[in-house]
Amino acid sequence: MSTDTDATARAQLIDLAAQFYDQFELGEIPHMELPTRSKTNIELDEEANVWVYGDRTSTRSANSVRGARKLLKAVYTIEFLADQLEQDRSSTLRELYYLSESWDNKEAQFNDQDESNQLIEDLEIVSEVTREDFHMRPEESGATIMGPLFLREQTRRGDREIHCQEDVGEGGYQIPNNPDTIEFLSSDAEFILCVETGGMRDRLVENGFDDDYGALVVHLKGQPARATRRITKRLHDELELPVTVFTDADPWSYRIFGSVAYGSIKSAHLSEYLATPQAQFIGIQPSDIVEYDLPTDPLTDSDINALENELTDPRFQTDYWEEQIELQLDIGKKAEQQALAARGLDFVTDTYLPERLEEMGIF
Predict the structure, then answer these.
(1) Separation between Cα atoms, residue 244 and residue 280, nearest integer Å
(2) Positions marked catalytic
(3) Which segments are annotated as binding site?
(4) Structural contact between residues 283 and 294, judged by C-beta atoms closer than 8 angstroms
(5) pLDDT tens, residue by residue, 257-276
(6) Domain with 31 in it: what CATH number?
(7) Binding residues for Mg(2+)
(8) Residues of the chain where predicted confidence (pLDDT) is lower than 70
(9) Do 148 and 121 share a structural domain?
(10) Which residues are paired to 304 by β-bridges?
(11) d(Cα 327, Cα 323) in Å, to the nearest integer?
(12) Which domain holds residue 279?
């Protein structure tokens, strides 16, 4: 069923295509201006406390063969998206890449999926419409929620009401591609616990952590999808729930936290929509490795390089992070969440997390 949002998104896309036409009419070379998407063009929005693109821009222009091809691909993609919205259909990012193979102009076809993914991001930025409102979906992320939350979800078969403990199996409630179609009806939750790995998520559920502590356990499935970050932000903002992020002790996991809390370079144009700057890190700390004598693996050269880069990453410019990263570089070790099992299967839910939550003032 087509909505007002669909009509607005379609109008924005058509307006964008019309701008190219107007440039032709004025005798200008067609072009599209975009923020430079690099670490050096990320800055803190002090009001929203999230990382956004700065003032540096780059221009996609038809004054070169390469630039002309990019704009041609943009026009074909805009036409496809506008038709998709008019027909109330949807497609995945992967399908868009393959669909371009059928376009009548070979120059408009994508070379690889990275190229088509980036173009969708470009169109989000210049049209100020999210890909979810374009009806574009990623491949299934499988991220889930388990906990005391009652919600209503809009589906093609009508609305349905779901309790994220009573009406779901052990796997939990699967987060839809567009969480803005969800209405939160009621909740007895005390806080949100975003968990990196499936093994730890299963341990928490099996031990009844969601019941015992009123936790909404959000399984991030590694680097979280946009839908996961969006629903986390909505749960925080609308239900006023504290957000904690529970990950491994390695540089890649710290970036998972940074993505939830402050946003990422790739989606900095959506940081205010996706990021939750109030999120707190409750993951395994380098200091925990020392204190609990956890089983570890040695840092690789790639790990060391990533940690050193994080020391200059604006998302980690605090005394806490500098102290923990310097300690990790000093001991040369990393540890997984499941390493806590060395102290017993119940240690994480009976001791580790309750103590950390108390230190944070959640309880």
Answers:
(1) 5
(2) 98
(3) 196, 248
(4) no
(5) 999 998 877 777 878 889 99
(6) 1.10.10.10
(7) 196, 248
(8) 1-3, 140-141
(9) no
(10) none
(11) 6
(12) 144-360
End residue of a domain, out of 114, 137, 160? 137
Instruction: Specify whether the CB–CB gap between 353 and 207 falls below 8 A.
Output: no
155 and 121 both lie in a single domain: no
User: Residues 114-153: pLDDT tens digits?
Assistant: 999 999 998 988 888 888 888 888 776 679 999 999 999 9
Residue 273 confidence (pLDDT): 86
Predicted local distance difference test score (pLDDT) of residue 140: 64
pLDDT of residue 305: 97
Burial 113-150 (b: 16+ CB within 10 A, else e): eeebbebbbbbbbbbebbbbbbbbbeeebebbbbbbbb
pLDDT at res. 2: 55
Q: Phi, psi (5° rounding) for residue 353?
A: -65, -45
